[in-house]
Amino acid sequence: MEIESVNDACSAGASQGPTGVSCSGGPSGRLYAFDGPAAVVLDHRGAVVRWTRTAEDLTGFRAEDVCGRPVRELVADLPDDLRRATEMPASGRVRLWHRSGDTVDVTFRTTKVGGSAEVLVLAAPTHHVADHEQGAALLRALSAQNRITIAVIDTDLTTVQTNATPGTLDGPPVQPGTRLSDVLCAEDSENLEAVLRQVLETGAPVVRRNQQVSWRHDPTRQHALSLSAFRLEDARGRPTGVAALYFDNAEQMRARRHLDLAREVAERVGGSLDVVRTAQDLADVLAPAFGDLAAVDLAHSVFDGDEPSKQLGGGDMGNAALAPATAVWPAGIKRGESIPPLPHHPLLYSFRHGEPVVFGLDDFIAMVRDPQLVEYLVPKDVHSVLVAPLHARGLTLGAVSVWRCGRSDPFTEDEADLMKQIASRGALAIDNARRYTREHRAAVTLQQSLLPPATTDTPAAETAGLYLPAGNGAGSSGDWYDAIALPSLRLALVAGDVVGHGMPASATMGRLRAAIQTLADLELEPDELLTRLADLIQRLAAEAPSGDGDIVGGTCLYAVYDPVTRRCTMASAGHPPPVLLRPDGTAEAVRISPGPPLTLSGMPYETTVIDVEPGSVLALYTDGLVERGDRDIGQGLRRLTEALAARCRPDRALDETGRTLLADLADQAPRDDAALLLARTRAVPATDIAHWEIPADPTAPSKAREWVARQLTMWGLDDLLFSTELIVSELVTNAIRYGRPPMELRLIRHHVLVCEVTDSSSTQPRLRRARTTDEGGRGLFLVAQLGGRWGCRHGQNGKTIWSEQAIQVPHEATTHRGGSRQSHPQL
Question: How far apart are CA 52 and CA 30, in angstroms?
């Protein structure tokens, strides 16, 4: 059949192919199953002489259909250039008829069969050829990447083919015929081969598996690899090996480490407001994550919270932190020691302008120019050091140095930029701690300057007070204690706690302490004193700036011990109860009825009275001593009671006992400050006290003078006889004239002679200057002139007017009684 007739038949829509075989019509360009290129052999005339099975699969025609016929009969649309060709072209693209009537777009290549005129034609569907060419181009591109190693591995995990060359992945290449164990350390090769074997067995690919490996020739250095692998299969789906792609992941891993390091610095550095702790946190983050060794050096003034000098040099700095703690440092680098000054060097100028500098060991030696100083300052086996200034808010606080030793990589410019960021964040954290140190020191200094003397020694008791500031950034909280000497040898004991922290709390504490001392001079009962103190708190809150009124307040315990009656009267404004240690060694918390805190004005307070034996110890404290995160105030109070019973002994000084109690009970860095006041009570002997009931009789003043004369003569105080008779006469006369029975006269002898007259009237006496013609009004004036001081106090059953006179103590008849130099006259 001629090709023209075939074309005519096709154009007429006949359902016959080029060989006259019946075909079914269909859309042009249908894809047919195809396993490989079709091979056809043509003679010198272009007739088909051999027809392969793949050619039959490609066109649907059998060998007997096409052999002996011109190949042109199979071409559906012969291009013009091929029509004019006198011989077979080397390659080209045509559309072939398919037995079904469709056409197949193919790409072909031809070659002479050696020793004959026959031509071999290989043809394949064009889309298969395009895919093959793109795949080949992709494979060539991948093979050309020097950071990607492609390896074809057989079922025995032996490398069959690879693009690896020396320098790929910074290690020796895996040549054909070798295994991973030939180039990697045993443990690393076993891990990777286990992954490849799993891919081979399951067919599940592995994508971007990151792993650190070491080469056999250099096992000390780690390299970051990323492995992707998939199984290779033949045409029947049987596994023939694994294709593995190894990526050099060093840059990505380095970037990830840098991000992790920056994140850890942000999380760990700055959590403390202690300068040294903050510096140590910075050093701990940097070593060993960023370098083998790290040191933080700060200006000496920074440790104390002050600003560093403008021209900071080596001699002005001291070491604040070293990491790791187990490292062996040279003699010139010791924690807390000063850093020796270094010579001028061009690199140091960039450091002074806030830029980090990188030194190689040779650079450092050349800069120092002193072998002994190099040995004194440089750690062993160091090859590179990165130094960055700690620059914050216009101040250079110090420097952070990171050293790399052994076979580790030298520092790079990227790492210097990272170090600059880390140092900037660390400097801000250290400067925050420095500022807090300065403010905390000022607040604590103010707080301690507002506190009374640590120890007192009075006729009523010896006392020891201790104050412990809060740690971890809490600062002072306005806790305080006080021991106030009152008339008639009595002693007021105070413990209080102000709301808030810092200088405002210290200032409020100072105002409250001054107010209590003023109110104590009025000799008010404890409940009345706390009521007036609560009123003062309300006034202070009203005066506070808008929004700050709620932070003005606190708690307070006020107690008055009388060594004559041996009783202690106390009242609490929301404050924990005191602990009483008796002479027999038993201790217990005093049962009191605490009133509301001082923030609530107008609320009543209840007074508690207890008997106290001489030699007992009263412990007043604030909640910072008994309340912690791991225990409530009840547990803390029991611990204080037990510790007081165990630690407080008569032969031990109270201040030493107090320090021991603070060490036992307080945290190392307490969240709240604590105050403790210990008072060991005394009593006035009965032989130094005399009292009489005053009859409501006009002759009572003369009787009182007789009683006083006898008693003073018995005590050997004849030099005070005249003045005392006048004082007693005036006080008794006023009591009879203005007071109500029952009335009482009492004399107390100690370092002063106390005269007291008590009556049941609440009328307050008043000192005034009498005119010439006045018949009265001179009594209290005489009392004030004759005595050292005088006053009046009110009790539940009346008032007491008292006067004190100093007792002259002869040197030959003195002894120590109750903390004062007292006379012991011969009776």
Answer: 21
pLDDT above 50 for 3: no
In sequence order, which residues have a C-beta less than 8 Å from that of residue 676 and are 6 or more positions away? 465, 466, 467, 468, 481, 619, 620, 621, 622, 625, 658, 661, 662
* Residue 275, Cβ density class (10 Å: 0-12 exposed, 13-18 middle, ≥19 buried): buried
Report the pLDDT value the prediction gives residue 754, as an integer from 0 to 100: 93
CB 244 within 8 Å of CB 229 = yes
CA separation, residue 417 to residues 352, 412, 574 (Å): 16, 9, 57
Cα angle 662, 667, 669; round to 5:
115
Residue for token pair 């008693």: 711
* pLDDT tens for each residue of 207-246: 888 877 877 777 766 777 888 888 988 877 888 888 888 8
Tally: H helices and E strands in the chain: 21, 33
Question: Would strands 103-112 and 91-97 be described as parallel, antiparallel, or unpaired?
Answer: antiparallel
Please report the sign of the dihedral spanned by the C-alpha atoms of residue 401, residue 402, residue 405, residue 408. negative
Sign of CA pseudo-dihedral 628, 632, 636, 637: positive
Selection from 503, 502, 512, 459 nearest residue 482 by Cα: 512
In sequence order, which residues have a C-beta less than 8 Å from that of residue 114 and are 6 or more positions away? Answer: none
The three state secondary structure string of 178-198 is CCHHHCECHHHHHHHHHHHHH
Give this prediction's pTM.
0.60
- Of 517, 514, 510, 513, give the one whose Cα is nearest residue 445: 510
| SS3 of residue 383 by DSSP | strand
Rounded Cα distance between 384 and 378, Å, is 10
| Mean pLDDT in residue range 112-125 | 85
Number of residues that make up the chain: 827
Nearest CA among 26, 38, 47, 187 for reference residue 122? 38
Q: What is the mean pLDDT of residues 361-379?
A: 80
Cis peptide before 288 (omega within 30 of 0): yes
- What 3-state DSSP class applies to 549? helix
> Which residues make beta-bridge pairs with 579?
589, 619
